[in-house]
Amino acid sequence: YELWKWLEVEGRFLRARADRSQIYRTLARLTDDGLVCHTVAESRTGPDAKIHRLTPAGVEALLAWVASPYEPGTSWQASDFMARFLLAGPLRPDSLLGLLDAEIEARTAQVVQFRDRDRAFDSAGGLVTDPALARLLADDVHRFGTSQIDHWLGWLHQERARLVHRLGNPGPGDAFV
Hints:
Layout: H1 2-9, H2 20-32, E1 36-41, E2 49-54, H3 56-67, H4 79-88, H5 96-114, H6 131-167
Helix pairs in contact: 4-5, 5-6
């Protein structure tokens, strides 16, 4: 329940809404895999609560994930980046700049590939009844998408500069802000 509450508030930008039954199934699977264990805290006012903790094998698996290379997905909205940034960053601060650099590189490459692509409109063999409206909507979605990825890249660069300053770990050409 506490994990669900955390995901609903603090973790809401990590993933889409999580169903409590999904959390319970995942915790059961992690327990079966030996990555998590639990104790029962008795309650006088409601149902007893299971308190879950990582086992030594769970800690090892978490640290292995933190140390594994980040592979940006095709969508910049994927939750893997934010999970690594928020959860792995405090465990391995030295990994944050590499994480940001990989995301910046991947999204910059997407901008180069897709921003000014040929966006000639195909009326789907006459299926589209109002090609002008379809073109207008496609252009609106394209403008919105480009503004979103530009905003994302701006945030990534801002976070990188802030972390360079905080971590005192500039690379070549980095300036403290």
